[in-house]
Fold each of these.
Amino acid sequence: MSTAPPGSGDPDTATGSDEPQSPGPDDPGAALGPILVCRRWVDLRPSVDPLTGAVGNDPRTSGASAADDAALEWALQAAEAWGTSVVAVTVGPPGSQAVLRDALAAGAARAIQVDLGSSGDAASVAAEITAVARALTARMVLCGDMGVDRGSGAVPALVAAAMGARQALGLVDLAIDPTEPGVVTGWRRLDGGRRQHLRAQAPFVASVEGVSTRLRRASLVGVLRSGGAPIEVVVPAGPTGGRVPSWMPASTGPGRPRTHVVDGPNPHEPAWRRVILLTGAGTDRPALRVVHAEPVDAAHQLIAALADWGEWE
Amino acid sequence: MTAAGATRTAAEAARAAGTPPGPPTAAPAASAAATGLVPAGDFDAVVVGAGPAGSAAALVLARSGKRVCLLERGPYPGSKNMYGGVVYPRILDGLLLDWWEDAPVQRWVTRRATMTLTDDQALTIDFRTESWGRPPYNGATALRPEFDAWLAAKAVDAGAVLVTSTTATGLLRDRPGGAVTGVSTDRPDGDLRAGIVVACDGVNSFLAKQAGLHGPVDPANYTLGAKEVLAVPARTIEERFGLGPDQGADFEIIGCTGAIPGGGFLYTNRDSLAIGVVLHLPALATAGVRPEELIAGLKAHPAVAPLVAGGELVEYSAHLIPEGGYDMMPALAGAGILVAGDAAAMCLAAGIWLEGVNFAIASGMAAGEAAAAALAAGDVSERGLAGYRRRLQDSFVLQDHRRLRHAPHLLLSERVQQRYPQLACDIVEDLFTVTNPEPKPGMRRLVRRQVTASGVRLRDLAADTWRALRTFG
């Protein structure tokens, strides 16, 4: 269990669309359902050919990232505290079963591989994870914050949206209270070294950074048992796009705004004047504006400001 | 060594009996549990270290129907290995049918050269043959992270249970000072019981030391190998070394380590070169020179620089090598424990013959066979495991080591390291220098002149020649 950072006040409620559902009083673990922990099989030490720049991946150096391991550890702690179980899921080729066996060795009860190959984009992966969560009636999903192979970090948010669950993303610390099953309290980074204090009640999707905790060392018995343990393999019936909701973005790559053609200063102006025009030195700027608003309203105001500046089409 | 046919028959019989592979948590095999002398445990055998020796031992044990656990400290077999040299895999003929078809070989060595260097001279004996480039081959350059993983996978296929990222931290015994009954590991609930422990845990074998099989450690028996891997395009390698697409070159070098006894090497991988030095440990400790400085000097030598030009450094590593040979070997067996590979100092460093992996594999195979026989007989006492040493004595492993036991001392002597390379180069330079209008000197006169100039006494030269003949003859 983590220690709460100093200076934390009342937590914000994590965003989400559904009203929280209370766990059943008699069997809180069963009412909560299993905790689904997502693991991604990725080359942790990819090689780069110094002569050609080609990136090489090797199954032997592949595994789960520190963030995914941290998510597993939090899931195991929560399951122990609330009397439920952990199901590990990965979306990837058969080789990705290695990260599931690590999870089984550490204490996960079940492992599911969605055999999507290695080409699934974030939306497809999120759709498959959501389908697994629904099949298991899992209402709590834990993930690493983003893939170490230039991942976009979009999967947890997409899963949360598809499940209609709250999202608490990019957590650097987590607290699990045994007396409050299905509720996690977390902290995440804000600009200026500040922290946001979040409280999320199931259904939720939480993603954690690798620094948040360290995965326990699996026992030898666990390792030996995991080697022969069954792994459930789910093969998507049709094209992966079939499960992707229409509202999900077609691409979840990093934003690349189009370039603007900016006319240079008049070459006939004196040099000092052209420098001022180019740098904007000495010109009036809009005053810093602090906005206090609800999330949806804040998002609208941000978009409006970007449009004013010509950065939003 | 087991014949290939016999191995296959045993493996097939084991498979037909349905013995391996069993689930890791299944009950111990009857062969171990039913005997009074063999303690009932989790496995019949635990092999510590998934290098060539360990994987070979595990493979043999698994094929003989024993439940064997192969423990590896790294995240995968070969993960922490720095070796980048020549493997002589013919020993695998008795273990794996047509091993060359899927072995992760970089290049088949068809060119073998021995270079003698001075500051600005080089004398090279260069041999090549096309026959080494086709089955059954002779030697191959290989990257051990690939090779070890491949061999360990064979053991797993045969039924061994591979456990990685797990370090054996000590020996379990039936009573204080008694027979070894397993190992403890660095994992929670990490005790692993077994009838036999095969220690293949490398040059600093803590298990063999803990078992009391090693005598006092003498640093003079060890060298430090330091290596750089330089990325060079395959086509460039083939042009520079005069090789075909799958062909490789092996250069062993003497006279490149300054005042420190040792040697150098240069091997061709598929699209990289491995270049490095091997340095006598006590001399390195007192020399005040770092290994990378010596490698830099070697790379800058006029005879070597054109071969490695433009190479991009992609790896630097160093490792201890047990070069003392026969005289530094530990006791090879104790009650419940066998030692193989580098842990048993099986590396052969005899100048013109520098071999290790084949000795490791052979010792691992012998350990596996001896362990399986002892388990079947229900006697894992030191006496019951004496078959291990007999197997090694009957094979090239101890025969070569015993015959060449004086080679390391001879080759690391000051004269062989310093004076003879200079003398040889000077004689050859004198021989091929045309000094017209002076007439050519006679060979005897020329040699006598250079020997005198070198300060080498004829008595020492004769004594060393006699020792070399006795050692290598």
Amino acid sequence: MMDRTRLIGLQLAVALGIILLWHVATTTPDIFNVKTAQFFFSTPADIAARVVKMFSTGIIWRHLGITLVEAALAFVIGAGLGLAFGFWFARKPFLAAIADPFLKAMNSLPRVVLAPIFALWFGNGIASKVALGVTLVFFIVFFNVFQGVREVNQNILSNARMLGMNERQLLRHVYWPAALAWVFSSLHTSVGFAVVGAVVGEYLGSSAGLGYLIHESEGVFDTTGVFAGMFILSVFVILVDVLVTVLERHLLNWQPEQSSALAKA
Amino acid sequence: MAQMRRRLSLVETSTVVQPAVSLTGVSIAYGLKSGGRYEAVAPVNLSVEEGEFTAIVGPTGCGKSTLLNAAAGLIRPASGIVSIFGQKLDGLNQQAGYLFQADALMPWKTVLENASIGLEVAGMQKGEARAKASALLARVGLKTFLDRYPHQLSGGQRKRVALAQMLVRNPKILLMDEPFGPLDAQTRLIMGELLIDLWQADRKAAMFVTHDLDEAIALADRVIIMSAGPSATIIGDFKVDIPRPRDVAEVRADRRFHDLHSAIWSVLRDEVRKAYGQFAAEPEGAGA
């Protein structure tokens, strides 16, 4: 317990140190040219003021909401498709063998290059961002489930068979829970990628969302706006991640808690 | 009159009690990655009668587990016939319960769910299945652990769940593959006692694979000795005439136990040495 307070204290000290250094370097005339320094790096005080203003005027909520909706849709659709195809292909190795080179080719493509084509197909609204997020989430969940179902513990499988399960019951009591476990264990990564898809999509062309906000500020060399947007984005991602951790604890309560054991170590 | 007698004898042969498990000329072989074949078990004959607890002992890698898996229908023999109560086995042995050496509980199901699943998939009402399972779990000493998940239990407790999971379906044959191998010595003794307690209630046919000769003699009515592989075969068949009920721990101090132990060990010893000598030359993919 003592160690934990000390750790948090040190972490706070590092954060304050960085902010202080930033503040001094951008506001003390004797170090750099203040105007140039602030043009490139803004100042912590300005950024804080901008964040406060964004929330007090309430303009941020719409952007946050849109990014959240895009990320959520991308996750649900991507994970759903990944689960379905992963499960299906794992049970039908012949199909998987046919699809293998195509999946690999698609997965090797940097997803950013798809953004313009999705904008062309689905327009500048939410749909094109969701599509981009789906292409990211799908492959993570797909490969996890595919591997997970194919490598279901042989002892558990033999035992379930000896207990009298038929194919349908094996699917329900063994393969399906095993597949779900793999979806949940990749939850952090896939939710993270859903947010990345949404923000990158917004950044490359849209009229709302956190990515749009950052891009818009960049367009007018508003460094304060860019940093404020980045700050809100990282807090947003951390909050989503905390939510995922809570969800995970509920869904995977049958598994030993690896993550917390690691954190304690 | 002669006709009458013939008919009578026909009736007699058809009502003759069939062995629970009968292996006739069963051999097991694998194709090797490097090409060629590896014969793990040479053709063997073995039958296990109803109510008989048979232990199979042999050096590591002799194929005793493989033979058990053939009786379970988990693997197909390269030759020979496996019969269960006189019926040729095709596919899985539905009359048998199987206790695995490794953990085979479903980690996503609770203790109670694991124990009752065998009844539920057989079509029994959930409530009834759970009631039966929890009664059995109480008998194996897990009354207060019904809602735990397997990872929250000790190795011995998980074995108890597996035992309940196997027994709840009331199988006619029990197949056990070194079930207490991974447990510590004290827990093994206690699990052996529990197993014999439960088994004694209705004496099913049992095949119990182990590498522990003490365990085999303490638990079984009959001890089968297998030679070292490849082409392992049965080289000894001993009757354990120590009366039941036995105290699995105390019986080891019995004179008959000692006599049997030295008689069996004299057969087994050479095979164990042979098995160790062979380890260096063992072909790949030829596990037990």
